Automatic annotation (TrEMBL):
<dbReference type="InterPro" id="IPR018107">
    <property type="entry name" value="Na-dicarboxylate_symporter_CS"/>
</dbReference>
<feature type="transmembrane region" description="Helical">
    <location>
        <begin position="268"/>
        <end position="289"/>
    </location>
</feature>
<feature type="transmembrane region" description="Helical">
    <location>
        <begin position="421"/>
        <end position="445"/>
    </location>
</feature>
<dbReference type="GO" id="GO:0070778">
    <property type="term" value="P:L-aspartate transmembrane transport"/>
</dbReference>
<feature type="transmembrane region" description="Helical">
    <location>
        <begin position="376"/>
        <end position="401"/>
    </location>
</feature>
<feature type="transmembrane region" description="Helical">
    <location>
        <begin position="111"/>
        <end position="133"/>
    </location>
</feature>
<keyword id="KW-0813">Transport</keyword>
<dbReference type="GO" id="GO:0015501">
    <property type="term" value="F:glutamate:sodium symporter activity"/>
</dbReference>
<dbReference type="GO" id="GO:0098712">
    <property type="term" value="P:L-glutamate import across plasma membrane"/>
</dbReference>
<dbReference type="GO" id="GO:0005313">
    <property type="term" value="F:L-glutamate transmembrane transporter activity"/>
</dbReference>
<dbReference type="GO" id="GO:0005886">
    <property type="term" value="C:plasma membrane"/>
</dbReference>
<keyword id="KW-0812">Transmembrane</keyword>
<dbReference type="GO" id="GO:0015175">
    <property type="term" value="F:neutral L-amino acid transmembrane transporter activity"/>
</dbReference>
<comment type="similarity">
    <text>Belongs to the dicarboxylate/amino acid:cation symporter (DAACS) (TC 2.A.23) family.</text>
</comment>
<feature type="transmembrane region" description="Helical">
    <location>
        <begin position="228"/>
        <end position="248"/>
    </location>
</feature>
<keyword id="KW-0472">Membrane</keyword>
<dbReference type="InterPro" id="IPR050746">
    <property type="entry name" value="DAACS"/>
</dbReference>
Amino acid sequence: MPKQVEVRMHESQLEPIDAPPAPVCGGLCQKLCKNLLLTLTILGVILGSVVGMLLRYASPIHPDVIMVIAFPGDILMRMLKMLILPLIISSLITGLAGLDAKSSGRLGTRAMVYYMSTTIIAAVLGVILVLIIHPGNPKLRARLGEGDKNDEVSSLDAFFDLIRNLFPENLVQACFQQIQTVTKKVEHVPDYTEEVNSTMDEFLLNGTRPPPEPVFVTKKSLQFKSGMNVLGLIGFFIAFGICMGKMGEKAKLMLDFFNILNEIVMRLVIMIMWYSPLGIACLICGKIISIKDLEVVAQQLGMYMVTVVVGLIIHGAIFLPLIYFAIVRKNPYSFFMGIFQAWITALGTASSAGTLPVTFRCLEENLGIDKRVTRFVLPVGATINMDGTALYEAVAAIFIAQMNGIHLDAGQIVTVSLTATLASVGAASIPSAGLVTMLLILTAVGLPTQDISLLVAVDWLLDRFRTSVNVVGDSFGAGIVYHLSKQELDSLDALQGKSEDMEMTKTQSYYEDLKNHHENNTNQCVYAADVSAPEDECKVTLATNGSTAEYTLVEEEPWKLE
């Protein structure tokens, strides 16, 4: 009988050695090093602002010096805009090809409902704030002077231009041009003919007759303007991606191509991002230096700027996070920290489309949003979801009315809100979008259009704030759509996984059958060799192509076997 040994384990009386607490400075430095790119970008914004304000107090700076200072920022904008076209194409196709038609339709419906809801909220918020703060003052109109006269813009023409740009006639031309209706007033001389008598008296009488007054006739023509037709490209490649997704395995080669293209573009984005701190600093510094009479303009339009900035802060920091929290039930400010790099980039570049590559990277890598959602929602959102623009245009329209002493009734205020919403949706496909959309709003309520030029002096700063709010709205929209579509995406992945398993099982069984068939044929040949004459032939079916091959089995002589 084997001996049983009892082992008793007692708890050790030694106290564990506590690790010394990490110093606060060390932890902060570790976080800064971990987020080095974000830290450098924030420092670039601060440094550009401070240096720009200090250089304004220096002696007048030559325009060539200003150009040299802003040159690295110009290079950054060119590199970011260079990636817009391949990024939109590859992201839309790869995102929609991974979805079926029903899923992509639901995804688009949820995104559009979110976009329109937040844009209407932003426009209404702008109207409420400008009515409460009342920044416009008729005395301010006398100090600012007369504005530049603008061409007339028709709402119907702008709407038709939007539809025309949605269906471009030439896809290559849409990469760098878009169509616009141009209105010109042409002098029309009436056909004035009169019989002249041969007598000198009547000839002299007709010669002294005053010429007829010129009559101006409005003529419209379609002209191509420089600028990428983003709306038309998005419309085409959405349809392209959906059709390619329906083709299944037939389109796998092309889908792999666009997946690789998207991966290459994102790697280029990472390289450009390490250059962005310098470019953003130079952009902001050069813009601050180049503005003339900045202090005077800030004093005159200070309340107008405060109204717009307060509205953007309320919408971007309160309303959008509340909507996200109400639907997703997660901390919206943790979500915002994940897209902080994109927000800073939008603040520096003032371009939603230029910030698009950075927004992709933040949502997919930092927050884990499904690529099928980001690649569909973000390009569309960067084109039509302009919350900050809608708020800004609503405030600007009512500010111009207040400055001219014009009282707007309730119907006109509602018209301003709706027009600002619709104009911001189509802003990306209209050349000189800020000017044209503002003209549409002022024309809709009968306000003077020449006062728009008075607001251009501060538009460079407000443009950065509203662009950053646009990017935040797009990002929150992607998070909300992903939360609402997560179950569908998971079930779609499970269905695709089952189909792949079935295909793998079929492939394995097919190769096992071929292997067994080949072994059976080999055994038959060996048996035939044993029982046949010294020279015999055996037909073997090859496993590869099913054809038969003849093999000759020769019996060895006895003396060769030794």
